[in-house]
Amino acid sequence: MTVEVTLLKQYPLFSDLNETQLREVAQLCEAECFYPDHILLKEGQPGTKIFILVKGEVELLFTIGEERPTRVGLATAGEIIGCPGLVPPYTNTATARSLTETEVLAIDIADLRELFEQDCPLAVSIQRHIIQSLLDCIVGLRLEVGG
Fold first, then answer.
1. What are phi and psi for residue 42, nearest 5 degrees?
2. Domains of the chain
3. From first to last of its 147 residues, what are the pLDDT tens digits of the chain?
4. Exposure class string for 47-73: b at 16+ Cβ within 10 A, else e
5. CB-based contact 98:56 (threshold 8 Å)
6. What's the burial of 108, exposed, middle or buried (CB within 10 Å: 0-12/13-18/19+)?
7. CA–CA dist 8, 91 (Å, integer)
8. Which of 9, 31, 47, 63 is deepest in the core (most CB within 10 A)?
9. How far apart are CA 46 and CA 101, in angstroms?
């Protein structure tokens, strides 16, 4: 099911886009639902989608050495999952598993990168919001470790 432009306007990731850009992004989005324990992304696998979490909780797991995956974060409504798929080598750096019934907006990464090539201001706007989101996560991790 294609996503409505009005839904995209609710998320900061798309807040700086004009109506034409929002329509272009909306054409790339699909609403998806998952049950608990569904793997959205697998660490080390090619990144094929990014997800904007609409509802639910998703845990982020990372493998350190030979240990089993360790929980390194929890994503909740409004957060973005799968950003490493946007940059070379386009590989997921963590596993994302739903903890609850989860609703997401899924965007095909190859299509999004193609749209970035066609519309540089759109690319800059979305990437700026993704970078801010990632910086917020880093600061949160520093506070947890140091706190």
1. -120, 130
2. 5-146 (2.60.120.10)
3. 468 898 899 999 999 999 999 999 999 999 999 999 999 999 999 999 999 999 999 999 999 888 888 898 899 999 999 999 998 999 999 999 999 999 999 999 999 999 999 999 999 999 999 998 888 877 876 666 665
4. bebbbbbbebbbbbbeeeeeeeeeebb
5. yes
6. middle
7. 25
8. 47
9. 24
CA dist., res. 42 & res. 57, Å (int): 16
Tokens (6 digits) for 16: 């700086």
Tokens 């009005």 locate to 6
Instruction: Please state whether 44 falls in left (phi above 0), alpha (psi between -120 and 50) or beta.
Output: left
According to DSSP, the residues that pair with 34 across neighbouring strands are 102
The one-letter amino acid at 40: L
The CA–CA distances, whole Å, from 73 to 46, 66, 70, 94, 109 equal 20, 19, 9, 10, 22
